[in-house]
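Aim 2, interim progress. The first record below pairs a target sequence with its C-alpha cells.
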Amino acid sequence: MDSRLADLLRQFELERLEVNLCRGESRDVGSPQVFGGQVLGQALMAAYATVEDQDVHSLHAYFLRRGDFNSPIVYEVDRARDGRSFSSRRVVAIQHGEQIFNLAASFQDRQTGFDHQLPMPDVPPPEALPESDSPPLEVINQLPEKLQRIFQKKRAFEFRSVEPTDYLHPRKLAPRQHVWLRAVGPLPDDDRLHRCLLAYVSDYSLLDTALRPHGTAWHAADLVMASIDHAMWFHRPPRVDQWLLYSMDSPSASGARGFSRGTMHARDGTLVASTAQEGLIRLIKPPG
C-alpha cells in the first residue's frame, strides 16, 4: 500500500480508552491547525465504534476551536438513541481540556424504497485533466512560505480540477467548481471506512468555492478563513479509491461568512453524497 495512504488509515485506527471513549492521532498537513476533515472523519469513526449493522446517513458538525496537531484528540461518544431502524450519536472532540469540535450523526438499517437522483454535471473526465494536487514548482516558489509548506506535504488523495485556481493571479469567477478526487491506492472493502474517508476528503475545496466570485484565494495575506460547521448526507455506498466528482457551488457570502454546498458523484453517475458548509471569510484591515 502507498505509504501516504497507509499513514492516513493509521489515523482512523482509534485507540479505545473506554466503552464510549476513543483517542486519535493527528498529522501536520502544513497548516497551523489540525485539518478539519481529519477531526470530522475520526469523530465519525468513533461514533461507528458504538453502532452495529447500520450505515451513517447524515451528520452535522461544528468546529469550535483550532486543533493542535502535536497532541492527541479524545473523542467522547454519547449514545443518544438506539431505535428499531435509526440510531443517533453525539460526539465531542476534546483537546487540552476543551471542546474543539462536536458532531451529531444518524445511522440507519439498510432498507429499500423510492430511488431517484439528479444527473451528474457534464464535465471532462479525470483522464483529460492534469493533476492538480499542487501548482507547478515554478509557481510554488513564488508563493508565501506558509503556503509552500502546505503544498510540500504529500496527500493520500489525488485531485484533478476542472476549473483550477490561479494562485499567483486569482480572478473573479463564477461561484462554482468541479474537482475529481480519489485515494492514491486501493482500499479494503470496508463501507464504514469509505464513508469516514469520504467525510475526511469532503472538507477539501468546499469553503474555497465562496471566494471565487471575489477574485481572491484562501492563501491571501488579508484573509482569515476557518470552517464553522459542516453537514453531510450519505445517499449511497461510496468508494473513495475510485474517481468521484465533487461539484461545489456557493449561493451566498455575507456577514464575514461564506456558504457552500456540494454533491459527490461516482464515475458512473451515481450520486453518493451531498455536503454543505459555512465558514468564516474575514478580511483583515491593514494597520494604520
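The second target in this work package is listed in the same format:
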Amino acid sequence: MIKLFTLMGFMMVTGFPIAICLALASLIYLASSDMAPVVQGAYRMISGIDSFPLLAVPFFIYAGALMNEGGITSRIFEFAKACVGWLRGGLGHVNVGASVIFAGMSGAALADAGGLGTIEIKAMRDAGYEDDFSIGITAASSTIGPLIPPSLAMVIYGVVASASIGKLFAAGFIPGIVTALALSAMIAYFAHKRGYKRDARFGIRYLWNSFRRAFLSLMAPVIIVGGILGGIYTPTEAAIAASAYAFILGSCVYRTLTWRRFIRISLETAETTAVILFIVAGASIFSWILTANNVATLFADTLLEITDNRYLLLILINLLLLFVGCFIDTIAAITILTPILLPIVTNLGISPVHFGVIMILNLNLGLLTPPVGVVLYVLGRVADVPFERVVKGTLPFMVPLVIILILLTYVPQFSMWLPTLIYGK
C-alpha cells in the first residue's frame, strides 16, 4: 500500500489532475501486484459510475448553468436586496440571502461563487465595500449551496455510502439555514465595526415588484425541494425537472437564453460532468483497493489505539477531513474517505446520514483554504485580486463556519430532526 500512496502523492505533486492520479496510480499498482488483473480495475471504474442517482449530477450542473445564463440569478439578487438590503451592511446580507435561494437550485459551491459572485462583488464594490469583506462573505456564503438541497456532494455521498439521498437533503436544510444566520451575524459585526450603512430603504412596493419579477425564478427551489420532500419524484427526476424548468424560463419566458448560449452551456456541462465522473471512477478503484487491503480496519485500529473516546475520535476525524479538504477535491475526498470512515462512525453509533452532512460541510471548508481552495481561485479571477488577498478576506468568515461544524458534529438533532420528522426513524 505504501507503493500506491507514494505513486499517487508523486503524481499529485508533479501536477497531474486528481482523477488521473487516482486511476493511473491504482492501475499501475494492480499491474505490479498479484491482487487482481488490471481488467478487474477497469471493471471497478465502470461499475463505480454505473449508478442511476449519479444521473442527477449532470442535470443539476445543467440547471445551475441555465439559471446563470437565463437571467434567473440577477432576479434572485434583486429580490434578496429588497428583502434584506435595508439592514446595516445590507449587500452583505443580500449576498447570503441570494446564496440561500440559489442553493435550492444548483447545489454546488462553485456555481454559487462563479454565478452569483460576479454580480455580488461588482454590486458591493460599486456601493463602497472593501474587497476583503466582499470576497470573504461571497466565499463563505458559497458553502451554503452544498448543504441546502439539492446538493451534488450529497448525491455523490449517498451513492458511495448507500444512504438515502432524500434523507441527506432533509438533514442538510437546517444546518444550511443556521449557517446563513451565523454569517449574517458576522456581517452585522463588521457593519458595526466599519460603519457600513444601509444600502436601501425598506419599501413594500419595491419588495412586491422585485418579488413579482423573481416569482417564477423563486419557484425553482420550490419545485425541486418540495417535489423531493413531498415524494413526487426522486432527486434524479428533480434534477431533470429543474433543468427543464430553467430552460423554459430562459428561452420562452425571459427570452435571455439564445441558441449560442444554450450550445455553449451544454458543452460546458458535458465537460464538467465528464471531469466529475472521471474523478468518481478513479476514486472507485482506489477505494476498492484500500478496502480489499483492509486499510479501513487498520485505520480504525490506529484511531482506537490513540483513544476510544467518542468525542475525541470525532475531533480526530474532523481534523483529518479538514486536512484532506485542503489538498483534494471534494468529490474525490468523499469517494475515497467514505468507505474508510463510515464503518468507524457507525460503530460509534452515528447515523450515515448525520455523518454525511458533517463530511460535506467539513470538505466545503477545504474549498476556502489553500493550497487547493477552488472557490478562492474562482473569486480571485472574478474580482481580479491576488490570491493572498482573497485568503486574507476569507479567514474571518471561517470562524462561524467552524462553530457550525462543531455544533453539527456534537448535536445530532441539529441535522437529524427534519429527516426524522419527514421519513421517521
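The chain has a mean pLDDT of 84. This observation will shape the mutagenesis plan for the next reporting period.
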